[in-house]
Amino acid sequence: MWAAAHAVDDLYQGLVPASVPYFVLDRGYGYLAASGLTLAATLGSSLPQPLIGLLVDRRRVGPLAAVGVVLAGLGVGLAGLAPGYALTWSLILLSGTGVAMFHPAAGRAARIDAGDSTAAMSVFAAGGSVGFFLAPVLATPALAGLGLAATALFIPPAVLVGFVLLRAHRRQAAASSVAAVGPAGGEDRWRPFLLLTAVESARSVLFFGVNTFIELYWLRHLHTGHTTAGAALACFLVGGVAGTLAGGRIADRAGAVRTVQAGTALAIPALVALRVAPSPGIALLAATAVGVAINIPFSVLVKLGQDYLPTRPGTAAGVTLGLAVSIGGLAAPGLGAIADAWGIAAVFWVLCLVPVPGLLLAVFLPEIRPTRPQDAQDRRRAT
């Protein structure tokens, strides 16, 4: 349930960049105005998340995830119908705020249901990757055929998921209250959590950098058509879903920190292979490998952040799923400036270097001894 809700919620994050070209074409927005829409979504989804996480941890606002996903869908869905730029911008900001409301509450609830299983948390995290993948797949034909008014077609999934989450919350509240499962001891460890946030920020810059420029790399450097360029983006995103799921299972066997270190290290040769690939076909394989490597640490970082802050799982989720992830979106204009100055190939040389500081910081992350599933069940019964 939480993985499906995460997919729908992050679908609306992906719909904003997917719809921006149609705002430019249909309404005549300039590039500055178009980038302002992306900025509205980023600001709405990133800045409030830590504060909402604190609220979730202190007040444990159960329906917040349901309300958040509904607002995320309504904001983007109505933006295509809004008559003026100011209202459009405000609605996209509202959608981003809905995304911010969803992640801390959903991350905390998913962790309760997942217990100490990183593999289970990887399913929740992979839902978000699926949502990002589906956004351009669904939005492009709808917007191309019906125009901006087609954004309204994406409102019903938000309302349906919000209804399902609200009913699930009411059933759970009527049955019993469930205590969050965290590592033994229950002491918050802020220093490693800040290190982890920096590692996640580096991973986020990689993800948004490749996601933003991979199609342009195929078109302008490898000189392919739009179909092959779209296939490159699809390979990268599908590899991301596979990497997210694989990372959780590897972490349950090899340890969370080792998995983060391994995924970050593997990203370096994968990115180099993508940059030096002699043909578009080989580059497609490299793009898939890049997606896998970049996302192996994703779900692990989400759960590890909650392990470092066992009394604040909502705050941890708000930072790892929200603030740190959004840093990648804020870094994208800088990569764009590099592309303008030195060409699109230079961006991918820079991206080859981004995992290095993340790997160096990951060396200092302390490992947390995994808890066996039976131990987690015993602790639930005890509470």
TrEMBL record:
Membrane topology label: Multi-pass membrane protein
SUPFAM superfamilies given in the database record: MFS general substrate transporter (SSF103473)
Xref: InterPro entries: MFS, MFS_dom, MFS_trans_sf
Subcellular location: Cell membrane
Any single Gene Ontology cellular-component annotation: plasma membrane
Molecular function in Gene Ontology: transmembrane transporter activity
Stored Pfam families: MFS_1
Protein origin, superkingdom: Bacteria
Broad class of where this protein is predominantly found: membrane
Keywords: Membrane, Transmembrane, Transmembrane helix
Record protein name field: MFS transporter
PROSITE patterns named in the record: MFS
Every Major facilitator superfamily (MFS) profile domain range: 193-383
PANTHER family: FOSMIDOMYCIN RESISTANCE PROTEIN
Transmembrane portions of the chain: 29-49, 61-81, 87-106, 118-139, 145-166, 193-214, 226-247, 259-276, 282-302, 314-335, 341-365
